[in-house]
Amino acid sequence: TKKKEVSYSNRGKSLEDDLNETNVFYLQQKLAIIHKKPVPIQIVKVDYPARSAAVIREAYFRTPSTTDYNGVYNGYYIDFEAKETDSKTSFPLKNIHPHQMEHMKSVLHQRGISFFIVRFSTLQRNFVVLYEIVERFYENMKNGGRKSIPFTFFETEAIEIHEGYLPRLDYLKAVDVLIADKAVCESEEK
Amino acid sequence: TKKKEVSYSNRGKSLEDDLNETNVFYLQQKLAIIHKKPVPIQIVKVDYPARSAAVIREAYFRTPSTTDYNGVYNGYYIDFEAKETDSKTSFPLKNIHPHQMEHMKSVLHQRGISFFIVRFSTLQRNFVVLYEIVERFYENMKNGGRKSIPFTFFETEAIEIHEGYLPRLDYLKAVDVLIADKAVCESEEK
Ligand SMILES: [Mg+2]
Ligand SMILES: [Mg+2]
């Protein structure tokens, strides 16, 4: 009966760990190819010891100019940013860098699928939300509006993803919904 | 009359430099969003000096598990590997890592556009060649066949890209041809 006690509770694991595990699963199952981009590093000094690997001795972290993850899923270019917040009531927009918003806008212009995965860590709830929706809040903030997106907005307007065993965080289900919605929008525009 | 002497000759510049410049141009002109992936680094030791930026004091280069470049172009997922050779007669397949081939095969399976940009440095000639074509040579090599792709094959079967001023290496023109060819193939398959 020990099996019944297995819990998929996720306390302590970071959103990034969960997404990386999920992406490995997607890759192995041939469902999608999505990778975390390495953090860009400015390398200043490298030693080349005889008979062993080069050692970086001085380097600095650079600010990423794009998003955390990108790749391809069934012909679609996928590009997203993962964000965690401890807040129980809202997602603070200051977590998003202006250059990330710019990058995501360009992705949209190239007809990629651009979204955020937002984890409310304390509440253990995860949501997928389209870039376009976050952009509305972001522009509104720049015009003096509120500096965060209410949790209640996520509950009613975003797509919730539930934690599981394999994959840990099956966000492609949400991406399917985004793609289906987009197809509807595009055909309505005609 | 000095202007007439301006040459777009590319001696000395690396293929990577040319592609990075080209990608900046594409980004600024809103033609495509394609980035070089940072080389993955294994960080072992970081110092956090008071009042200044974190300094990486020990780190190692890791072997990239994918390709050099990826991004999105007009709804298409683009994924490619850039390779240079000094040879005047053929492109040696040992330049390609098995994990790169695996990655590109997966990209194809997800309906992305996967290709190589090959520069014959000594000849100052550049070619775009679909992953699928390289795969034929690669598989043939694994079965005991020749270990390189003849330059004459590139001349007749690949798409040549010529160096220019802005952009340096307009490979999207070649990608347009690849996409058009694929569309023809797919409709013939039906
Ligand atoms: Mg993030
Ligand atoms: Mg390369």
Structure description:
The structure is a homodimer of 190-residue chains. Chain A is α+β, with helices and mostly antiparallel strands. Chain A has a single domain, classed as Trna Endonuclease, Chain: A, domain 1 (3-Layer(aba) Sandwich), CATH 3.40.1350.10. Chain A contains five helices and ten strands, in the order αββββββαββαβαβα. A six-stranded mixed beta sheet of chain A has the order 1-4-5-7-8-10, with helices on both faces. The radius of gyration of chain A is 19 Å and the shape is globular. The first copy, chain A, starts with 14 loop residues before the first helix and ends with a helix. Chains A and B meet through strand 3, strand 4, strand 5 and helix 2 of A and strand 3, strand 4, strand 5 and helix 2 of B. Bound molecules: magnesium ion (2 copies). Chains A, B: Its main location: cytoplasm. Chains A, B: Its cofactor is Mg(2+). Chains A, B: It catalyses: Endonucleolytic cleavage at a junction such as a reciprocal single-stranded crossover between two homologous DNA duplexes (Holliday junction). Chains A, B: Belongs to the RecU family. Chains A, B: GO terms for molecular function: hydrolase activity.
